[in-house]
Amino acid sequence: MMHQAAISLGITVRLLAEGPDVSAAQVIADVTVGDYTDPATVEAFATGCDVITFDHEHVPTTILHDLQSRGIAVRPGPDALVHAQDKAVMRARMEAIGAPNPTWRVCADADELRAFGDEIGWPIIAKTSRGGYDGKGVWKIEGPDGVDEPFTGMKQVSAGEQVVIVAEEFVPFARELSALVVRSPSGQAAAYPISESVQTGGICVETLTPAPGLSEPAAVAAQQLALRISHELGVVGMLAVELMERADGSVVVNELAMRPHNTGHWTIDAARTSQFENHIRAVLDLPLGEPDMRAPVAVMANVLGGDETDLTGALLHCFARDRELRAHLYGKEVKPGRKVGHVTTYGDDLEVVRRRAAHAAGYLMGDPNA
Ligand code: ADP
To answer: With contact defined as beta carbons under 8 Å apart, do 259 and 279 qualify?
Structure first.
């Protein structure tokens, strides 16, 4: 999706892909298949590139520092990116800049985790500092008996990285919000409207924009928080600040992502400038585009792999039924629960727009009665 934006800007993209069949490798001409954790592979790949950016955060920062010292622009840079890689580093930094954190602590072993829970009250959340995604590497621990689980589980998640367990107070949040901002090296920044991210089993299934019922002052405060974080951390490109909103309207930061984010996929069709185009503009230090919406409400629904395997064929029904539906398929093999595409609808009435998206996504997942 970044490539689509780059084409219009006349930018040639070179891709380092982890396999020959990944989505981006299917459409980009200049592909190197290699391991992004191997310094020699990344350095050979980067030679001749004007600027390096990412569609995930996992390239080791030591490699990125080496690229920078060779004069290659890395955007976002490793000193910012580490806050999206490591939740312990992120929590410490949020605390230092006064951004809202849950009560948290790095725990070296099960005894320390038990002490944390006894002190602040159960349940608690334990997370691996690195390597988690879509709810993997996150455990809700109901009481002292469960404190061994994250220390056993972290071995599966971490693959030998420098990983610690971060304990957090369990935040009884009412919903999750996403604040997306983009910042250029010159310091220009833009904030997208705040989205609600509807999650099932740790996976985002739907976004609603603007977040329903969020007051104007609360939305502006969330945008300002995200802009401040991007400025303090020196982020270049897109920053997604995932927020947990309590029933009283207060928020805490859950995690940061420094790349175009799933909760911003609606912007391709329903914002004046998509997050992908603004990310590319930012890393090139071009003036940023307007982030505002093309319609009062927009809904994005993820297509998770289900019984339907011929997704393009299934579009016949979806497009015949809804001429304003927008669909994006990722060229991935359909596997149960895997994100294989998304649909976006927009219009005036949230209930109607939401139903249209749910029907199309459900149909593409193999449920004709969705
Ligand atoms: P991942 O890296 O898998 O996205 P997150 O840190 O976002 O991990 O956590 C996954 C989910 O766990 C969140 O979307 C949220 O629902 C829940 N969660 C995370 N931290 C807390 C917390 N402190 N209190 C309550 N729920 C939490």
So the answer is: yes
